[in-house]
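Board notes (copied after class):
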Amino acid sequence: QVQLVESGGGLVQAGGSLRLSCAASGRHFSSYVMGWFRQAPGKGREVVAAINGKGDSTDYADSMKGRFTISRDNAKNTVYLQMNSLKAEDTAVYYCKALWNGRQYWGQGTQVTVSS
């Protein structure tokens, strides 16, 4: 069982920045493929970014490229999402996901609200 706890959400003005963190349990964190997803009010959950276990391969949704950066610290069992140049349309609940051993695990989410 993998447990994920997100933090770092909050209220920020358009153009501002936030860094989200996701702390994971387990001894095999460096083997987890990690991802960030988000869900805006009235919309489905969408992928934001993903990173492999070593942290040397990342992928982003087109609308986030150049503004968001995913990274991880395997010594701390933590994955991060640095979000810059935030827009009102980035307002959503952001979720962390781990994929390991054929199973997926989700965190409880953290709210990000961007005021225009």
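Comment from the instructor: The first strand starts at residue 4 and ends at 7. Residues 48 and 61 are 5 Å apart (CA to CA).
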